[in-house]
Specification:
binds fe (ii) ion, eight-stranded mixed β-sheet, 29% helix, four-stranded antiparallel β-sheet, Jelly Rolls, 10 helices, binds 2-oxoglutaric acid, alpha+beta
Amino acid sequence: MPSITEEICTGNLGSLQTIPDSFTWNVTAEDSVLPPSSAGVEESIPVIDLSDPDATTIQLIGNACQTWGAFQVANHGISQKLLDDIESLSKTLFDMPSERKLEAASSDKGISGYGEPRISSFFEKKMWSEGFTIADSSYRNHFITLWPQDHTNYCRIVEEYKDEMEKLANRLLCCILGSLGVTVDDIGWGQKAGNSGTKLERGAIRLNHYPVCPEPERAMGLAAHTDSTMLTILHQSNTGGLQVLREESGWVKVDPRPGNLVVNMGDLIHILSNGKIQSVVHRAKVNQTRSRISIAYLWGGPAGDVEIKPISKIIGPLGTSLYRSVTWKEYLQIKCEVFDKALDAIRTVVNPSD
Ligand SMILES: O=C(O)CCC(=O)C(=O)O
Ligand SMILES: [Fe+2]
């Protein structure tokens, strides 16, 4: 975990009047957001209604996964109250003075806790954001430090959020696999999934805060990356900032729509689908007048510690498996070491376009 105790503390960014050199990113032409199309309509990821999923819904999800690697869902079944509760928990946390937040900093031992974005170490410049990761039960101790009186209530919100998101993630996976003509049973985890011993939690939550920024064009909230997940479900406050990269066209904004959730395909579904589904490259930009909160539910799949490899039914009898098998834990380790080369590191077949 990168150190956050340097002279300019991430916890105080919102009070700065100018951006320090260490936070100034080089802006290039490819960096800018796509202009609206010739029809004047701004193109973005599709919004899919989950209220009554049928064959058409599955097809829409399949198209979105293969073209964008992301989509938004409406009528997803997560209550607005729970979304509001986790958002206000995040606001309360990030509004605390920097010294208080640092008391809950993630230690070397656990990954839960307060800190800079986990991908910071791969970039020369610093990002205009702070976050809190909930990856294992040690987050409870941090909550006790932050809220000696109210931690029980806040822990309850987190647990409910994890349970509800896990259910939604399972539903979404079924739809995504359905669009590829397979089912969860075809993954072949069977018994092993139920009987696995020490478990990595199946999902982690990352609370992100992007303070107001005096020069948003020159700053970066969260640099371009793909998630090391099966899929990620993102709730964003009503301030825009998320952008997804569409191959051969550029960065496209994903503006918040009240109540909707964004679903990003991660690297593990790319592996499982033998490359049919792309994991989406995305980033977060910042805003001059409004701060922004996002809550990412990072989901590793129905079972956290089994082997993940391309589904044989998708490969087909004559096809080739593009990736060797990995566990989620192993993949996270590889990502920590080589970042955006992680998929290449487990590829068995050299990409013909390379
Ligand atoms: O804040 C956002 O919109 C993106 C967050 C994100 O990509 C992440 O936490 O992995
Ligand atoms: Fe992400």
